[in-house]
Amino acid sequence: MADIEMEEDHPRLILHNFLTEDECKELEFIHKSCSTIGYRPNVFSTTLSHLIATNSAHLIIPFLPIRDRLKEKVEETFGCEYELVTEFTGLISWSRGASIGWHSDDNRPYLKQRDFTAVCYLNSYGKDFEGGLFHFQDGEPKTIAPMVGDAVIYTADGRNTHSVDEVTSGERLTLTLWFSRDSSHDEDAKLILLLEENVLHKSNNVPWSLLPLLASNNMYWFSPHQASNQDIGFDIRLGRLHALGFDVYYSRDMNFGSDLSELLMEPMQLARRDQLLDHKFVNVLHSLQIGEYVNLYDEQVAQFYFWEGCKSQAFTNEVQSGKAVRLSRSQSEKITQVNSVFLKDTKLVETVFQSAGQCYFSSATFSAAITEWEDYSCKLHKEILLSLPQWRAHQAIYSVKFDV
């Protein structure tokens, strides 16, 4: 790990290859399968509290060792060992059109508790996105081209005023953390309370469900002008599935003159062109998690290597093996109707999210990826309980029995 040392007047540190490619791909999967509309136009975010609220608390586990390593590095670099708490942890992606002007990270009264910032880049400038260069106003280095695995840490005050150029294509993805000397802003304390309320107490010693729940639908609606404008734009869950090459099919009869927001909570199937996959999913978030997992799947899926080339013949083989069936006209009409409600602008989808291209998944790959995903999810469910004592959880929490 080659470090660029910091200046005294503008304390900052650049860490090359701080994260492995596998770590970056794991976090990318979590973000693409769980994200919601972010805090700025054309920005998407995945927070730890959101993962808990949507029954995906097990996906917090991959963050924990990275958070600890970053906090230790910040404390070592700035000479404040054992003084800091993590104030915020989140995955943040910037799509085409997103940018931010000159600012410091403590530039609002409600942000004054932020003392240090750490930004880890999960993909690369020039390969995964264009634009999105990071600039410091003063000091060296002045400009940083994000590269997968690199991290930048700096003080959150005016000594490190910075900006980010507009993203012109692709999706720029970061893991962003802020650290504070004020223990009242400790993120962990808030997360423990959420885990008690939304996960552990809900279980009552019954094995946890591994299935995600949906948040409020307005947290998923993307519009180029206004997040609440339902006349234009698209639902980002269906949008990401569309970018992967999938459509969503619901078997029940639907009244398209009424509010269909609850439809996305219902069981559904995935379709590809004129073919329907046999596997049934509990809801659209469940299908999105599997879809992204398939997209990242190869022979060593547990290590999250990037997707391998897909063969055009493979999906046809699924039809022949009974894993998929030809869509009927009525089924195709239902898919078209669903898209007319939730994907009002498919060109916008393709502009915002990079497409996986003409990708066809074999039945063996799809089935194996589902099995691997379930195994991975179960493993993380167990690990979340084992990690709770490290978060200073109450005895009542980690005495809850767990079995899957």
Number of domains: 2
Question: What's the total helix number?
Answer: 11
Main sheet summary: 8 strands, antiparallel
- Give the strand order, joined by hyphens, for the main sheet: 1-2-11-7-14-5-4-3
Indicate the CATH topology of the largest domain. Jelly Rolls
* Shape, principal axes of CA atoms: globular
- The protein's oligomeric status is single chain
CATH class of the largest domain: Mainly Beta
- For the terminal residues, how far apart are their CA atoms? 39 Å
CATH homologous superfamily label of the largest domain: q2cbj1_9rhob like domain
> Can you tell me the CATH architecture of the largest domain?
Sandwich
Estimated radius of gyration: 22 Å
- What is the helix content? 25-40%
The overall average pLDDT, rounded, is 82
Question: Could you give the count of β-strands?
Answer: 20
Strand fraction: 15-25%
Structural class: alpha+beta
Which residues sit in consecutive blocks of at least 5 with pLDDT less than 50?
298-322, 392-404
